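Batch 3, record 17
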Amino acid sequence: MRGKRILFFDPDPRARRVAERALAATGSEVVSAPDHEGVLTAMDQARWDLMMISYDPPLREDPRWTERLEHFDARYPGAKLVLHSTAPTEANLPLMATRPFLRNIIAKNDEPIEPDELIITAEKLLRQDLFGLGKYLLWGVEPYRVEIRDSRKKLDYLQEVAAYALALGCNERVVELVETVADELVTNAIYNAPRTEDGEPKYARLSRREPVELADDEVGTLEFACDGDYIAVAQIDPFGALTQETVVSYLNRCLVKGPEQLSEASGGAGIGLYRVFQSLSKFVINVEPGHRTEVICLIDLRLTMKRFRQQAKSFHIFIQDPPAKRGA
Amino acid sequence: MAARPTFSIEVAERDGVDVVTIGGIIDENADLTPLSELGVQPIEVNLRGVRRINSFGVRTWIDAVRRIAQSARLTFVQCPPPVVDQCNMVSGFLGHGALTSFFAPMVCAECDEQIDQLFETAACRANGGKLPETRCPRCGRPMEVDDLEEQYLLFVRDSR
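Prediction for the assembled complex:
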């Protein structure tokens, strides 16, 4: 985006070349730091709209970086931060639990870094144009849409998604992943998303065996699409009640195998998000607080199941800035 | 597309053992009462037909397994990958029972043949916590598991 300034750092020169080209293509001014000393200096020498920084060693272990990360929002007001990392995303979730300004982690796997994801992430943050499954798929792909209205029709909704995945030629395990994601997203749209006028959860404490039919202004949408590389499943609700704290705390609780995994506090099991997270390659949550939430799950179809399990997952929570901040 | 199977459960007695056969999807529509109400004689649960378990199904399942009498010998056999995944991810999924045989998704790197192969847990334990060698039925070359073997076989280590 023209007029915006991006600071990028990765210790791998190939990643820097990819990022410099990709981010410059957005029209922003891009400065790529050559080493971790350089990025520490650059962070303080100028005002940045966005910093996209490798969270791998050696920077990760540098106390000067830790100090900057600790007080990022106070020290760099208005700047957005995106980390990229080769570490499993699970290892970075505790970091996100205590740092609300940290919402975006791009997984770095075999390739230097995916230019598409850099561009999409940067543009979403800088333009504050957050919503839409289409941003993650090739141009021209038309998503299928199903209205989520009635818990008693959940199997019908899932049947449509499964039929779509089977028609694409996905094998049984991939179809199971897709169904798992869709199942939990539909349940989330019906039981967890709806709020009362006071903003309190409306159906969350109901057993998932209790049928719920959503009112017209509560109805959600399930979308699914594929561009050959990724199959995407998304859920949209008109509430915007999902928070970073909820997502990260649920995932962190479930990642530790033990008696705390299942939640007694809700009518479900409290592991739906975790099951979604385990079934995807990229997890994207867009929130316009009080208005709408969009959860996008992308499954990389190019991978064998073994590679799928090995790969780190990208994790993004985009929260719409308040109007005053957006215009600033 | 034909409707994919939902949930089924059947209980039969065979030589003093209650044999429970479960198939389909374990979710909020699954009624596991026939399993949880069994008595104290040995129970063998065959899970070969289970396609998927959702988050509410996990809770339903754990509640049902916990209600089985502790004195009943409980074994789970022919567990497919969705069940193995749950055993590895969720604490208490097997209750006081033991998983004695399971399917693993095998793939041949040479000819791309894919099969779900049945293994005995005891054989894996005897093999140092690894899958015994499996030959490709098409080309005869050794197959590998299409998953992270160490992660897929966590339950073997955990159940020692």
